[in-house]
Amino acid sequence: DNKQKQILYVSAGVALLTPFTDTIYLPALTSVKDSLQASDASVALTVSLYLAAVGLGQICFGPLSDRFGRLPVIFGCLIFYEIITVPCIFAPSILWLIFLRTLQGFCVSGTIVSAQAAIADIYEEAERGGAMGIFLAPMLIGPVIAPLIGGILSAVFSWRA
Asked: What is the pLDDT of residue 42?
């Protein structure tokens, strides 16, 4: 029905955040390194710890969304994600950026696991495969478009954009 489709499309939009946030600043890693006077290894940690936090966070937020509901977890995680994104822009050192990106990954993980659970909640088993395909499609598109956008932003402004 119409409400199911609305939830599906909004959930798919939320799912885009995880790969988008991971890959948007990849073109600017050299700029991050130069700006924060960091090593290649420490800059790489901003990506790998983000991804590790996404994985670990899902283990934490899945049961929380079962207990407290999908929407409270999604909205709470989105709020904290936005709050943490602002200090990432102004990170004074690579250690701060690593820490903040790790928190960012942890927060965004709650959105994807809760949104995916919501899809499983509202679709019958026979329809769930198609719904999950639509839900997961943005996760495949995000890593393609995010570096293009990130490259333009970092070239025009800086990595902090």
From this structure: 97
The amino acid occupying position 83 is I
For 110-132, what is each residue's pLDDT tens digit? 999 999 999 999 999 999 999 99
What is the pTM for the complete model shown?
0.90
Q: Supply the mean pLDDT for the chain.
A: 94
Rounded to a whole number, what is the distance in angstroms from the first to the last CA of the chain? 40
Task: Tell me the HSE value of 9 on the side-chain side, using a 13 A CA sphere.
Answer: 5
CA distance 59 to 44: 24
**Could you tell me if 44 and 141 are in contact, meaning their C-beta atoms sit under 8 angstroms apart?**
no
How far is residue 46's CA from residue 94's CA, in Å, rounded to a whole number? 8
| 3-state per-residue secondary structure call for the chain | CHHHHHHHHHHHHHHHHHHHHHHCCHHHHHHHHHHCCCCHHHHHHHHHHHHHHHHHHHHHHHHHHHHHCHHHHHHHHHHHHHHHHHHHHCCCCHHHHHHHHHHHHHHHHHHHHHHHHHHHHHCCHHHHHHHHHHHHHHHHHHHHHHHHHHHHHHHHCCCCC
